[in-house]
Amino acid sequence: MTLSEELTWRGLIKDKTFESIEWLDKPKTFYLGIDVGSADSLTVGNLAVFLLAKRMHKAGWNTVLLVGGATSLIGDPGGKNSERELVSREQVEHNKLGIQKQLKRLFENQKFSLVDNYDWFKDVGYLEFLRDIGKHYSMTELIQREYIAERMGEQGGGISYAEFSYSLIQGYDYWQLFKNMNVELQIGGSDQWGNMLSGVPLIRKKEGHEVHAMSMPLVINKATGQKFGKSEAGAIWLDSTKTSPSDFYQFWINVDDASVGEYLKIFTELDRAQIAKIMTEFEANKPSRLAQKTLAHEVTKLVHGLKAADNAATHAGALGQSSQILSGQVAVGDNVVEVLVKYGLASSKTEARQIMESGGIYINNQQSMKTEFEASDFHEGRVMVRRGKALKNTIVLGQK
């Protein structure tokens, strides 16, 4: 399977500036950038695009990973309806070191270049930047970009000149990487598409060379319709001190049946035949949760190593056995909210409804907002109910 065929099958191509996807099958050099202003760890929301980078690297592309020491000092306006708080240079440097460590683990034993845009921005003068870069951008084009237009509209929170200029800074990054490292493609999530387009025309105007950009779709939790990567307890981090390997594994175990096949394609290195076999077996016996167990083990192995994945799987298995001890009984038609309160998963009906509305209630490991228990919820006369991702907040009820 060629790279273009694999990325198409995995659903990893959304927007692109090149006409034919076969352009990807002739490896060159690409870059992927990330800002580090908000945290010293990646989340599972960041993971998908870095795994896209790994697939391209495996297919022969030279890989440049950019950690935005400069752009993080400004703040990316994309995806935000108000101004970001500025962070100090010291905090950015601290965050950068933590994320660089994670990138080295993800790309372990693979050759790639790791760069920081602060290295070339720290000596750039304001007048120099306006003359060499700003002169090539149209204000009309910039204010029409979706994320800027939203911030400037009646319902928007406004945008500072600093954040407005972020797109030009990212374009400058691409130009530097093209000149010094022969980069001809930038990849990223589709929420970055506006910024990613900034370098393409700049390089065409300044160098007379055609370079490209490609985005992948944002991963959406089909059960909630929300951007993938958060649980009731917040973000799922790749840093084991923020999210333990066991909780990390449990997060993946809890994904819904409708999404698990897609996640196997996006978040694992399993090939087409392997995933097809897993999904066939899973569809024939969904209560086995084979697809979720495979997904959890594969992703935990990628992020934390084989030993941590095996230990997390063992821990989850022990929980599954112990959770078969009945906490009580429930009947078809019983009110879910009342049951949550009765068995201590919520302190009140109001809290129970709030947890449910935020997607924090699971019935048989499936995120659920149903108001009453149904006959299909019971397997061998039992139903498992859980609040959030924490293993301890699980009860098993027998059918009356």
Description of the molecule:
The model has no long low-confidence stretch (mean pLDDT 89). The protein is built from 18 helices and 14 strands. The chain has 3 domains: 3-218, HUPs (Rossmann fold), CATH 3.40.50; 220-322, Tyrosyl-Transfer RNA Synthetase (Orthogonal Bundle), CATH 1.10.240.10; 324-400, Roll (Structural Genomics Hypothetical 15.5 Kd Protein In mrcA-pckA Intergenic Region, Chain A), CATH 3.10.290. Strands 3-2-1-4-5 form a 5-stranded parallel β-sheet, sandwiched between helices. A 5-stranded mixed β-sheet has the order 10-14-13-11-12, with no helix packed on it. α12 (245-253) runs antiparallel to α15. The protein has 400 residues and is α/β, with parallel strands linked by helices. The protein has helices at 3-9, 44-58, 89-106, 118-121, 126-132, 139-143, 146-152, 161-164, 166-181, 193-196, 199-207, 245-253, 257-267, 272-284, 290-304, 306-322, 336-342, 349-357, and strands at 29-35, 62-68, 113-116, 185-189, 212-216, 220-221, 226-227, 230-231, 234-235, 326-330, 361-363, 366-367, 382-387, 394-399. 44% of the residues lie in helices and 14% in strands.
